[in-house]
Amino acid sequence: AGQTTMQMERTFIAIKPDGTNRGLIGEIIARFEKKGYKLVAMKAVKPSKELAETHYDALKEKPFFGPLVEFICSGLVIAMVWEGTGVVKTGRQMIGATNPLESAPGTIRGDLGIDVGRNVIHGSDAVETAEREIGIWFKPEELVDWDQTVKQWIY
Ligand code: RTP
């Protein structure tokens, strides 16, 4: 009785090397925390070429694929899984349009960037994509099962 074991929606969020270099890690995490989402996994990695290529597999025919992979592997990435109602779609709204020149003020890219190749952050574009990306970046046991009871009334 009581608590159901319903699996909440999850998304994969990554702060890209430009974001970590510029000292934006705390700012970005704070936005997801304050919105009311729950952090269930996080790690700092300098991705291998294989990891970056797998992650961006859908873009492998694009002219910017090589430079994109090289950029993602060039420095520190903060890989995270965030959980909560509508987190995939709302996370994308919080991130803003791919091109920071077109993303609205108030969004992460709209507030913090100007270059499409250096757009600070990645967020999964669909629930299925999120599941795939979480599986690429994390082992199942790295997803933390923890209780946010004290703050549950916020949600
Ligand atoms: P992301 O996957 O990183 O959240 O970005 P997105 O869905 O908004 O954009 P997508 O089209 O999937 O592109 C992935 C990343 O590739 C880089 N990109 N560069 N014209 C270009 O040089 C170009 N276009 C896209 C961006 O870093 C983009 O986030």
Question: Nutshell version of this structure?
Answer:
The chain is α+β, with helices and mostly antiparallel strands. Helices cover 36% and strands 15% of the residues.
What does this structure look like?
By secondary structure, this protein is α+β, with helices and mostly antiparallel strands. Helix content is 36%, strand content 15%. It is built from seven helices and four strands. The protein has helices at residues 17-21, 25-35, 49-55, 65-72, 87-95, 108-112, 127-137, and strands spanning 10-15, 38-45, 77-83, 121-123. The protein has a four-stranded antiparallel beta sheet. The two termini are 21 Å apart. Residues 1-5 have low confidence and may be disordered. Bound molecules: ribavirin triphosphate.
Number of helices: 7
Overall residue-averaged pLDDT value = 93
Oligomeric state of the chains?
Answer: single chain
Strand % is 15-25%
Bound molecules: ribavirin triphosphate
Shape: globular
Give the biggest sheet. 4 strands, antiparallel
Low-confidence stretches: 1-5
Work out the helicity level. 25-40%
Separation of the first and last Cα atoms? 21 Å
- Major sheet: order of its strands? 2-3-1-4
Tell me the structural class: alpha+beta
